[in-house]
User: Fold this.
Amino acid sequence: LGLPAAQAQPRIGRLTRYAAIRLFVERATTWQPHFRLTESNATEVRAICASLDGLPLAIELAAARMDVMSVAEIQAGLADRFALLTEGDRLALPRQQTLYALIDWSYNLLTAAEQRLFATLAVFAGGWDLAAAEAVCADTTDLNMQSTINNLQSLADKSLIVRGWSGDEDRFGMLESIREYGLAQLKATANEAESRERHAEYYRQLAEQAEPQLKGAAQASWLARLEQEHDNIRAALAWALAHKAETAARLAAAMGRFWNVRGYLNEGRRWLAAALNNQSAISVEARAGLLDGAGRLAYSQGDYPASGSYYQQALELKRRLGDSVGILSALNGLGNAAYEQGDYPAAQVYYEECLLIARALDDQRGIAHALINLSGVAREQGKLEAARQFGEQSLALQRSLGDQHSLSIVLNNLAVVIYMQGDAMTSRALHEESLALRRELGNKHGIALSLINLGDLACEQGDYAMARRFLDESLTIGKELGNKRDVADTLVILGRVACGEGDYQAARQSHEEGLALFCEMGGKQGIASALLDLGSVATLRPGPAAARRAARLLGAGCSMLDSLEGSLLPGERAAYERALATCHTTLSKEEFDQAWNAGAAMTLEQAIAYALEEDS
Assistant:
């Protein structure tokens, strides 16, 4: 902040024009309401601000001592502290050391109990509330609950901690420069390990308390609570991984659903993998929880083989433990992984077992999940009426349960079925309701899915500008999350938009990028759809050579789709039929049949290689 020049001797009125002087006076009057800047104290005030290099935090800390010290005593105390640190050479003191000296001076004026509390509070990485401070800092000696409350207020009065952290009046925090000093003081005591363990245990308990709530009506408030404490949870995990493997494992396992809903997919997978590396030091229950979480996040990133592997390991452990709820979760995950890789018969088997177990447990949420998943299988097999019945049963259950996250999934999936039945208006309304819920929960992956589906609807209706708005946002989110499936689906629909606009190069590029991603994921349904779409793109070019290429790709895509017992969405079918008509118009029946049959006879690898070839 602004300071008067070193040699200048401005009058009182002019001194108050300098921001550093004004800040000191403002803060000083907080503690001494009758304090005024006068001729008798102006020299000391100016010296204090100059010695602190005009640093706002340092000035606030100094002014906070006005409740027990005079201006002259503060100035003298600072002079002594700086002389000690620089051996009299004030010019050698960098600004960072200036601030450190002021914090050190403030710390040494605290009582012993305040010093212990201050150092212990430094373990909090993202602020804390009173309950957290009591749990981590209070003990049976001099830091009991009442003294903790009193000393918190005292530290806030001295500007060493901040009340109202992040805009929450009931929350405290510590500026990072002050926290670094506090951590150094904590390391110098014998209490660091105990304080760190208390901190990790507190957030382990909080996460485990939150986990079941993330499935119910209170999920929005609990998601917000965990978001607020996320930095503390990160700090707890980092320490526990090195010192308390079981605590780290249980904390990471409990956080899996939060990371999934809020889109911390890469970070969550790193924490879960790190905790799994300590397998010999953790319980079977903790390991099973980690595997379940790892399967969930891998699935959300489109890494379906890894997801299936994690869930298979989790299932084996859950069966050994006799954990019916855990078995249900693992079977559901295995079904999802099989479904996304185009193995619909296997997915159906897993989902049907889920439904049996959920009904035996009278688990309404589990029943609803199994029903919507069976709806997806029926949809892919072209059994739209059965798919709709399953979906509507699931929707009725989810609306009664108050689980907004699961409700958004059911709305999304049922909307796809209704779209396939030709009711675009009802489908859009369900997608929009799903999107609103997902935005409310901050569910980035879910937001991307809803945007993809709305973009597909807009594309099918020829509103390409609207489609691009939806799809550009979904592409940004998908890339941010590292979610290959969302990116691939978005690219495919962007390819259809470009195809509808007649832009051959843009359409082909988008579809080829999408195809490459589906190949990485092992998503056979996506590969089949991409082959059909590239067949449609080929018809944008005139002549029999382009038509023969289109016919081969259409034959390859249809053959693969038939092997999966899959079906096309209305938009996909309309594009396919237009491409087919173009081929028949351009080629003779013999030429078409020859090209089609050549495509249908291709292996998966041959079809992909052909699709990615340059035009001849």
Summary: The two ends are 69 Å apart (CA to CA). Confidence is low (pLDDT under 50) at residues 83-93. Residues 112-189 form a domain with the Arc Repressor Mutant, subunit A fold (CATH 1.10.10).
